[in-house]
Amino acid sequence: MTILPFFLWSLLKVIVVTVVMLMSVAYTVLLERKLVGRIQNRWGPSRVGPFGLLQPLVDGAKLFLKEDLVPTAVYRPLYLISPVIALGCALISIAVVPFGSPSVIGPGGFHFFEISDVNIGLLVILGITSIGVYGIALSGWSSNNKYSLLGSLRSSAQLISYELALGLSLVGVVLRAGSLNLREIVESQGARGILSWNLFGGFQFVAFFIYLMAAYAETNRSPFDLPEAESELTAGYHTEYSSMKFAMFFMAEYGNMITVGCVATLLFLGGWTSPFGNLIPLPQNIVVLALLPIFWFVLKVFSFLFLYVWVRGTLPRFRYDQLMNFGWCYLMPLAILNIVATSLWLAYK
Amino acid sequence: MHLILFIVFAGFCLAGAVNLLIQTHPINSALSLIVVMTSIAVLYLLLGAEFLAVAQVIVYAGAIMVLFTFVVMLLNAGREERTLGSRAAIVVGFPAVVALLAVAATVILHTQGLGTAAMRDGITSTQELSTVLFTKLLLPFEVTSVLILIAILGAVALARPGDGERTPGE
User: CB contact, 8 Å: B119 with chain A?
Assistant: First the structure.
């Protein structure tokens, strides 16, 4: 492929995916507010637009128009750059996620439903996540506020501890697929619908449980949202941020949630493949054939996000020592045992 | 294309390294080191070692440098005072560094049997890498792991409270 069409196509894909991603971030916030509202027996936002559907746009406009305060004692360069790091890392990792069937190919061997097909896509996502820690760590330190510093220290310690369990829990899946390429991992579990998903057919439910716990901790979400424990730390690492800078941290959190949901879908829930396998005959219409995998993918990610909000609405927060204890003494050994068991099973087969 | 990328990221790498020395605030130095690490990862990628590149980002830029910044943040290390340095350092130091680098460069350039690495599109797969790691380089690999184990044991021994220090609650 020549360089110019490649460049233009990639640019188009990047723009479309980024816009879709930002819109999903906005509507995940609405989903959370609505669901938590229903869990607590109230309506949630319902005034702006039908069913409150325009609420995210109004919130965005509000955050844009707010006064942008910068406290005098902050360390300016890092204070300004850390929200950018946080949001940038949250948005970049979607670039390697394949969200539709790879059999739909455009002119010149061009894949529509994936920005780039990287051989080591899974590791790239883990690498970007590990860089994202700096956004949080530096924001707390540069704010020159003790609540911010404590919140960011907690958060970075939590991220580092749980990244280990998260990475190890994925090794079982990689062993089964024999590849780090996300597309190949999905194709390794597409044969018999729900029965060949890694979660059920692959006997990786222990790994899925570990991944779920570690993912909640990685994204600083309840019940592991200690960095933002309001009663102890006001707002944690973003206490001193206002206006769009605060919004960037907020968007980064929800962007990370979506990425984590995408990875869970790809690795454990069969990605874009149908849960019914070949039971339902495939439609002949090319448009339906192209859009059906995306529908399954979005549905799976949505149910993962739904679970996120459900957990947030029902479980109380852990104590910090419980969190660290759980991560190092239970999740990590369990993840290592899962790797050993999976390897033994694969060697036996 | 490869050459452009190489020049850009080698430039980033060198600029980060120089900035690391110039900066007076430890946290800026730590951040420049992260720039150096990630640029080196891109150089690995240009040589076709994709696994190594991402491992470099995850391990060095992600894990080790986070610990560095942690220490800086916790100690709340302030700005260094700028001193002019002793005259001996300028008179002896710079020529000595130049001489050392010259000797090292000549030795490396004259060594026989060193292949040249070409920048390419080709990718060394993870499978090939692990085959080499577990057959040809098995001994160094295992020795390194023992080394890390010793370091872990040392850290535990240092951090463990002595017999007299135990609090009654434990």
Answer: no
Q: In angstroms, rounded to a whole number, what is the distance separating the alpha carbons of residues A125 and A96?
A: 8
How many Cβ atoms from other residues are within 10 Å of residue B8's Cβ?
A: 12
Beta bridge partners of A106: A110
- Taken in order A110, A116, A120, A125, the sign of the CA dihedral is negative
Q: How far apart are CA A120 and CA A118, in angstroms?
A: 5
Looking at residue A201, its amino acid is: G
Tokens for B119?
Answer: 């920048």
Q: Provide the sign of the torsion angle of the four alpha carbons A65, A66, A67, A69, taken in this order.
A: negative
Q: So where are chain B's domains?
A: 1-77, 125-160
Please provide the DSSP assignment of A66-83 as one string. Answer: S-----TTS-HHHHHHHH
pLDDT tens digits along A119-165 = 788 888 888 888 888 888 888 888 888 888 888 888 888 888 888 88
The class level of CATH for B1-77 reads mainly alpha
- Show residues of chain B in contact with A180, CB under 8 Å: 126
DSSP H helical segments within chain B, as ranges? 2-22, 26-46, 50-55, 65-75, 87-88, 94-110, 126-134, 138-159
Between helix A146-177 and helix A121-142 the angle, nearest 10°, is 170
Low-confidence ranges of chain B (pLDDT < 50): 170
ipTM, two decimals, is 0.76
Residue A111 sits at φ, ψ, to 5 deg, of: -90, 130
Q: What is the pTM of this model?
A: 0.82
CA distance A241 to A252: 14
- Cα separation, A176 vs A298, in Å, equals 24
CB contact at 8 A, A209 and A165 = no
Instruction: Give the Cα separation of B23 and B77 in Å (integer).
Output: 13
Contacts of B58 in chain A (CB under 8 A): 123, 126-127, 130
- In the A/B pair of chains, how many CB contacts fall below 8 A? 57
A166 Cβ neighbours under 8 A, 6+ residues apart: A126, A210, A211, A214, A215, A218
**B-chain residues within 8 Å CB-CB of A93?**
none
Cα separation, A245 vs A253, whole angstroms: 13
Q: Which two tokens stand for residue B47?
A: 């040589």
